[in-house]
Amino acid sequence: MRYLLFALVGYVMGSIPFSFIVPLVKGVNITKVGSGNVGGTNVLRSMGGYAGAVAMILDGVKAFLPVLIARAVFGVSLPEGMMIGFFAAVGHSYSIFLKFRGGKAVACTVGTLSGTLPWYVAVFFGIWIPIVLVTQYVSLGSLLALAILSGILFLTEGYAVGLWMLAFFGLSLFRHRKNVLALFRGEERKTDLIAAFKRKRNEMKNR
Predict the structure, then answer these.
(1) For an engineered disulfide with 145, which of 58, 116, 128, 163 has Cβ 3.0 to 4.6 Å away?
(2) Which domain does 154 fall in, by range?
(3) 127-143 burial, b if ≥16 CB within 10 A, otherwise e?
(4) Would the pTM of this model clear 0.70, i.e. be above it?
(5) What's the pLDDT tens digit per position in 5-32?
């Protein structure tokens, strides 16, 4: 019952669609623009870096908070904390508020790490940022960072934590399956992070 309750709380929290809500505040239905995906990357591409960053941070927070509260108040173990975050990622990917549509679980994975193993967040971004800046492929940077982290956590944190990290990677890989095919075909959309933030700043100056 304990595990079921934690999984349910994680899923419901993860289902809150911040990457849908943030654009909606600006009058944009994110499912109708760009790739149509309800995730931070589509918000960033379609509305600029700042809106994308806010959406990604909030999508991370909805995994971070239940994990943090469960560990601080209920004293759950590290693998249990990873489990709660994983179900938040499932909720993010298959939100009950969006007819089981959603994002691709990366922000929730980072949020989970923030609440369980925060020092590995720096490792994630240490891998993710250079890859995305050089290749401009967010999907490639995300998947490689998660894959490498899975291997690292098996070696440093043990079998149980490593398996949960592998589960995060597997979920994200499944959600990115079309992106992976597009990468192999040379058809994946590029995202220039620097240009995305510059574009929004220029729009604010021109108002």
Answers:
(1) 128
(2) 2-205
(3) bbeebbeebbbbbbbbb
(4) yes
(5) 999 999 999 999 999 999 999 899 999 9
